[in-house]
Amino acid sequence: MAALPGDGSNPTALVAERKTGRILFVRKDNQPTVFATVPVDASTDGGLTGLALSPTYDEDQLVFAYITTPTDNRVVRIAPGDKPKPVLTGIPRGATGNRGSLARDHRGALVLATGDAGSPTAAADPKSLAGKVLRITGEGKPAPGNPTAGSAVLAAGLHAPGGICASLDGSQTWVTDRTAAADVLYKVTPGKPLSSPAWSWPEKPGVAGCAATSQLVWVAMATAGHLENLPQAPDGTFTGKPQIALAAPDGFGKVDGLDLMTEQIAIAGTTNRQTGPTVSSDDRAIAILVQPQGGGGGAD
Prior knowledge:
By secondary structure, this protein is mostly beta strands. It is built from two helices and 24 strands.
């Protein structure tokens, strides 16, 4: 899910399908249209699992996707009307642990969360790109200002990331992960391992995409079928238990992708239909009104 620039009055977004590699342009009250189709191998938990606009989208109109191929996981760049072009290849692929997430860091670069490809030792290995938060340029190179010059690694220690997001002012980056013990949310500190969660869910509700405002971090729950928001204090700590929004029977089911359009509006995607024919209530793109004081949210 990648929200397109706008003030929220007419929400538009790009939505990717994990198994088919299709990327659709969606707008309220309009039929979806195909923006691009990226060849993917979705035979594992991979496929097309990350989508983000270019850090300089207003100038270049480029879109980036994180995909699984028969040999690796990689980042590809897509120009309108052109074929996808690889920009970062060779990220380890395994029987599991291939899902990743991609976002703009709102400081001129892309941030990428990669799975551990089924190998916890790879996540801890500084030479491996598996199980990492990477910060890269639009050319797939290590971004300037990374902790180690010439390295794309921002932080290490991921297992099966569900989403990565940065606040619009670029001051905070967050990543969700599904570990053996619990689902967790990490605040990314460049150069530091991902070892102390900012929040954890032992019940494993299926943490997926996230969106960060100056006051809240929203987390989509793909198994439990709702959103949760964690209000932040001025020092960045969380001030109380997560508040649940869009739960049954008033929600839209399993929410997965999530991307912030403005400080007040996020775009989300659902993953209710895995097999069989779809109907209108299955998988949707929805616009969510983010309440400034953390008192829940509405959707359209």
